[in-house]
Amino acid sequence: xxxxxxxxxxxxxxxxxxxxxxxxxxxxxxxxxxxxxxxxxxxxxxxxxxxxxxxxxxxxxxxxxxxxxxxxxxxxxxxxxxxxxxxxxxxxxxxxxxxxxxxxxxxxxxxxxxxxxxxxxxxxxxxx
Length: 128
Fold this sequence. Notes:
Blueprint: E1 3-6, H1 14-26, E2 30-33, H2 42-59, H3 64-75, H4 81-88, H5 90-100, H6 106-113
Parallel strand pairs: 1-2
C-alpha cells in the first residue's frame, strides 16, 4: 500500500509533523493527514461498500463470484468486495464494522460462527 493515513493530536508540533512526513517519504509512501475518527478515511468509506455487497448477496440470487466479477470488470477494482472481505478476514471485518458503527450483515456473522473467516481459514465467501 502506498497510503499512510496520518493522524496528529491537536497539540502536535510542526517538528513532529515534519518528522512523520519525512519518515513516510523515506519508505516511499504517500502520507495524507486525516481526521481522528473511527476508521479514519479508508475504512470509514470502504466498509459500508463491502457490507453493501454482502447485503446484495443476501437479497438476490447473484453469487459471490458474480458480484466480484462485476466490480472488477465494471468498476476497475483490483478485486471484488467479497474477495476483499475474505482477504481482510471476516472476523476482522466485523470488528471494523462495529468500531465504525456500520451494521455487520447477518451473513458475515453466520460465516464467522461456522469458522469460515476467509482466506486464513480456507473458506469465506469463496473457497481457497
